[in-house]
Amino acid sequence: MTTTMPFIHDNFLLYNITGRSLYHDVAARLPIVDFHNHIDPAMVAGNAPFQTIQDVWVSGDPYKHRAMRICGIPERLITGDAPAFEKFVAWAKCLTKTVGNPLFHWSCMELQTIFGIDELLTECNAADIWERANALLVTEAFRPQAILKKFGVELLCTSDDLADSLEHHRAIADQNVPFQCLPSLRGDSIIAVNQPTFPAWLPKITEQTGVDITDLATFKQAVETRLDFFVECGCLLADHSFDAGFRYVATDEATARNLLDNVLNGAALSSEQTVQLQSYLLLFLGQAYHHRRWRMQLHIGAFRYTSSRLRARVGGAGGFAAIGQTADIASLSWFLDDLDKTESLPKTILYTLNPADNAAFASLTGSFSEDGVVGKIQFGPAWWYNDHYLGITEQLTTLANYGLLSTAIGMTTDSRSIFSMTRHDYYRRILCNLVGNWVESGQLPNDDELLKNLIKDLSYNNIKYWLTNE
Q: What gap in Å lies between CA 451 and CA 432, rounded to an integer?
């Protein structure tokens, strides 16, 4: 009888001897620092068992939802009111059609790593895998905190609005768990002055701070009060998403004051006025982050306003966004420079969704520096549509060519699912294989100390040091 090796095996994605050695001897054993994700802290704090594999693996995953829509699967079986098992079978029908997409690798890795399931999920075996996975999910070993421990997670930094209570982070801090779960600020609401959600968001900040927001001064006071609360809860990072390729213009306080007065009085701003006010607020926030020794993350290049029908039905993060235009590198440089000129530029991560920006972003890592600070500006890990074998390889090689690969801070999941911690393993395998290729093709010396230190740094050491040291 002939047996075949499982698709996900010990040497998956490791095509050379050096890469295999680096992975098994070094990378696979390192803890995980996941410095940007969208995991629900309430789920981690509550630590309740998951009901079904559909609930934890499919229902909250916009990547899967997008693939299912491309396959023509009815929305009722994606985000609609269909029973959980029917939705799971619909995903099973879709999975084999994702060949070449990272979803195929991720899904196979998750089933194997978490559930020990080596079979490829299909419509034919969906019922069997449903039963096997669900039988495990009700056990103590498959509760959220146990899964994070199994992955070797040391630190999770979630994404949290300025108005969030952070009660669940505080609850986790009081529990005896082997990892930290810290908030990080998702600051988009603070500068969303042109969005219909802004007027309803302001009273939440007033209620939490006791500051009556009537003008620019009181708005900044309320924001600073909430930032200090985030500090008390252990926050290390702030994050902003820019869908229009990033625009910045230097704006004085008097202009910003008048523009915010207009917003508070219910007047609409022109697109240019919006850029002015957002630029002023972003500069204010960058300075505030630096003062608190936070790290700043800038996610640039998504285009989220595609299908109005899907936006109305499933919300703004439903998996139907596209890659947007390239960044305005001049604007980005002006923003960083305005912070740098006043010695208030935080350590910063630049992410691009448009791979045409890779070289430009990598080159910016050498444009702003500070004595004694390693890798102050980071070309962030391959993000969203770039988080695949080719995208990760291109991010690493581009940074190596235009900056210093040795200072990079590794990978992050940017995911809503704790199962996505497998993406760290995915990254580490690709990294070790790439370095192994360089060694075996004669581009790097086969120096054991050099290679092992490089893998340790790019998988764990750099991000740990970058987050916790000045």
A: 9
Query: Helices 84-95 and 126-137 sit at what angle, rounded to 10 degrees?
Result: 120
Residue 4's pLDDT band, with cuts at 50, 70 and 90, is low
CATH assignment at residue 59 = 1.10.2020.10
Q: How far is CA 460 from CA 56, 228, 456, 457, 463, in A?
A: 27, 28, 6, 6, 6
| Domain assignment of residue 440, given as a range | 17-48+143-468
Give the span between the Cα atoms of 89 and 83, in whole angstroms.
10
Is 219 domain-assigned?
yes
Query: Mean pLDDT across the stretch 294-314?
Result: 93
Identify whether 3 is part of a domain.
no
381 with 427: CB under 8 angstroms?
yes
Length of the chain counted residue by residue: 470
User: Tokens 């299912």 label which residue?
Assistant: 68
What pLDDT does residue 1 have? 38
- The larger pLDDT score, comparing residue 2 to residue 357, is at 357
In a domain, 4, yes or no: no
Any domain includes 165:
yes
274/44 Cα distance (integer angstroms): 37
Contact 217, 278 (CB under 8 A): no
Same domain, 436 and 316: yes
Both tokens of 167, joined, read: 């009660």
- Note the pTM of the prediction, 2 decimals: 0.97
Taking the C-alpha atoms of residue 334 and residue 251, their distance in angstroms, rounded to an integer, is 12
Claim to verify: residue 36 and residue 175 sit in the same structural domain: yes
How confident is the model at residue 98, as a pLDDT?
Answer: 98
Same domain, yes or no, for 58 and 111?
Answer: yes
Q: What is the DSSP letter of 270?
A: P
What pLDDT digit, counting tens, does each position of 30-63 carry? 999 999 999 999 999 999 999 999 999 999 999 9
Interval 390-413 mean pLDDT: 98
Is residue 84 within 8 A of residue 57, CB to CB? The reply is no
Tokens matching residue 352? 């691009």
Q: Are 133 and 121 in contact (CB under 8 A)?
A: no
| 424-459 pLDDT, tens digit each | 999 999 999 999 999 999 999 999 999 999 999 999
Cβ-proximal residues to 188 (8 Å cutoff; 6+ apart), any chain: 240, 241
336-340-342-347 Cα dihedral, nearest 10 degrees: 90
Q: Which of 115, 142, 169 is the last residue of a domain?
A: 142
**311: part of which helix (H) or strand (E)?**
helix 308-314
* Residue 131 pLDDT level (bands cut at 50, 70, 90): very high
Q: Phi and psi of 71, rounded to 5°?
A: -80, 0
- How many structural domains are present in the chain? 2
Strands 322-323 and 302-303: what pairing? antiparallel
